[in-house]
Amino acid sequence: MTAKKAKPGKIVGHGTYVHLNALQELDAERQRVVLQAAAFAELEPEKSFNVVRFGRDGDIALLAYADFFEDPFPALQASWRIQLDSGQVGYRTYSDSLNPPILHRKELLLPPEHPRREEYAALTAAAESIGLFDDTTRIGYQRQWLALVRERGYRIEGHQLLPLGNVEGEADAADEPGQGGDPIQFGGQLHDHWEAARQRTAMVRYGFSAPIQSLARHGFLDGSQRLFDYGCGRGDDLRGLQENGISAEGWDPYYAPDQPIESADIVNLGFVINVIEDFDERIEALTRAWSLAERLLVVSVMIGERQHAGGGERFRDGLLTQRGTFQKYFTPAEIRQFLTSALDEEPITVAPGVLYVFRDKDAEQRFLLERSRGRRNRLRAPSAPRPREAPATRRDRRAERYAEHRDALERLWAQWLTLGRQPHKEEVVDLLPLTETFGTLGKALRFIEEHQRDQLGDQLGDPLGEGPGDDYIDALLEQAAEARKADLEVYFALRQFERRRPYKHLEPGLQRDIKAFFGDYPSAQQAGLERLRAIADPEAIAAACQDAAEHGLGWLEPGQSLQLHASLVDQLPALLRVYVGAGAMLYGEVQQADLIKIHIASGKLTLLIFDAFDGQALPRLHERIKIKLREQDIDTFDYVEPFTPPYLFWKSRYINEEHPDYPAQLAFDEQLDALGLFDLSGYGPAAEVVDETLARHRWEVHGLNLQPSQTPPALDDPCGRFLRFRDLIECGETQAATGLANQPKEPQSWNALLELTEQVLDPVIDWFGMIRLTYGFCSPELAKKIPGRIDPKRDQHAAHERNRLGNPICPRLGAAVDFIIEDEDMHEVAQWIIAETPFDRLYFYGPNLPLHVSYGPEHNRQIVLMRPGPSGRLVPKVVSPDARSPMSTV
């Protein structure tokens, strides 16, 4: 007898994933619906997509994974979701995502005989062996996955997991309590009765801090400017910057007190003033840092009203923490006001808690221009076979020349693509070495362009550069120019609200942009005006919103609105950036809001501000601001008494996979929806309904987690729809006779009783009427008093209680009760439970005797008939629940 051949397919939730190579292994109907879905989406299998996901509700998704066979964990490039009954197609591209979804266990998608299946399965087994799949919220997206692999001490090479070398660290004795030494100061004297251990606030970083990342994101770390970190802590940012060739120095009163304090183009005051408890000293640190900044000061602070994670008590205008540190959390308005009043300069908020203050106003103007830019959605090189090894040839001097000056040339090429035009010599950081090598900047530009064409041509088998490789470079340069021109149009559109600056007062780089893309200043102004007028066209706004949603930038209600997190605004299509920018000109810094709602037809922009948006799965709406662009009016609504602030449901819709909390938030949203306790369409239920319903069903929200309640309920609290917890605890002859409290000590025991009631007892009562419980929860104390034979290690009446060694009394867990229904045949009741409920174990004693039923994590659906044996004692007989009539032998 031959073994049954396993069908390919990886099941995730309610979906089944299959590679096209295994499609022939499926039944004819599934093969047909794949072709039907591809026809609806106008796609060609293999060329457009390579994986199919069959959904629960009749929908089907066609997925394109890059390098499926070569990449150990392929990244998703695009997906098409098709409703077969309507033919409706939804599209999402991940081509420009910095954190795309990835695929695991890819061997399961392939037919059993695939030649590389064992290789892929070995990688899966290795990942399982080090626990990489234990936390499912950290494995679905590339960034979190790679961080997790590294945390476990491994790296990925090909289809292997290889251990990292050991890194030895040194304990810092000064960080231990009582080892702080003398009080450390940025400026004036500390007060006498407390010495803040500020050095303990310095984090050990394994990546760049938020302010340094913001500088990189906005192009300030191109190597042309010096940076000084005032209060550099342990120096992790400095070390990383120096490793990247950036001129960076720093000083810290505790970790680097002997380093010189010196001026620089950029000064970073990162998370310093929020740990200074003395207001005057706080001012002194800020003004000292400002005095060192020749062009730009970056200030970052902790934002919000939340308590410090380590606990603490109120002290002055902040918190005195348990670690002996001080923390002040600023509101966005408070930190802006603090900087404005102290420096007499208007700061620019660039990220939550990160603000720029420019001394160089030309640099500020360039920054505002660059901020109008969207992220580049550049073309990517087409997939191509790996080039065959060529025989040894004569010396390639061009390749040697490129290799010798690789870094400078690649920076030049990147600058060309960023500017959308050839850089001017005054804009090139590496001008001197490039001109010494190539003679002129023009020759260096021609060299790098030819190199890019030749390199791609070689990859595509087009060594003469006259085919698809050459076309690709042309398209890349053209797309860069179009994107840059669109960014400039956004800039000039938003400058329509300001007094027009004379051309000669414009920043030189902006003058070059005008000449390259518009010819003259009036033409640039006119292009901006046309962009501004276009925001009044609902059809154009609708198309731009559709494009944004397809790139994962917000949640689209077709014909109504696009809602997205404020951090995504800079990535929107140019027209929507102008739309939002127009609202900013009327209201102010719109990106201080959490969510932004772009109304498609009404010419309105709504800003939504939540209480602790980050870190909360269900943030409460605090303030709503509606900007009416056509009426030039603003309506503000605060959710204060008597109004109850509503919750935001499906928060994952408004962020995307690049947000660090996205995987956990998505898991929460799906879990809450799967409970089936609420209708989450529209605005969802009122907050008080949510709180009461979750409490009644013993669920709690902690941060981004939805977890069973850890708080014991009152005995008279509802346990399901018809019973109280008291009913399941104070039942049975022995409990009544002894009067024992018999209450669970483990929180999960209470939860197990509720699950048993909701899944089994409530449906029974709803169908047959009220039950009479004869035996319910049994504590260890009650078990000692019950005469006769009981089996606490197996019967599940002990629920999740533990013995004196800390082990579960009954390893089966779950919970169990015995009950009878007066005037009902318990044989019929047992049959109904088997057919209609997800029970764990059922013991049937007779048509007129109580029935034992349990619900637990094993979900065994085991049926045991208790029959009299020859000696008169009951003998168990296990019957299959899959039989046509499992109780027919009674």
TrEMBL record:
Q: Which UniProt keywords apply?
A: Methyltransferase, Transferase
- What superkingdom heads the lineage? Bacteria
Q: Where is the composition biased (Basic and acidic residues)?
A: 386-401
SUPFAM superfamilies from the UniProt entry:
Hedgehog/DD-peptidase (SSF55166)
Region listing for Disordered, in residue ranges? 377-401
Question: What would be an example GO MF term here?
Answer: methyltransferase activity
Q: Name one GO biological process term.
A: methylation
**InterPro entries the record matches:** CHP04096, Zn_M74/Hedgehog-like
Q: Which NCBIfam families match?
A: dnd_rel_methyl
Protein known as: DNA phosphorothioation-associated putative methyltransferase
Organism of this sequence: Thiorhodovibrio winogradskyi
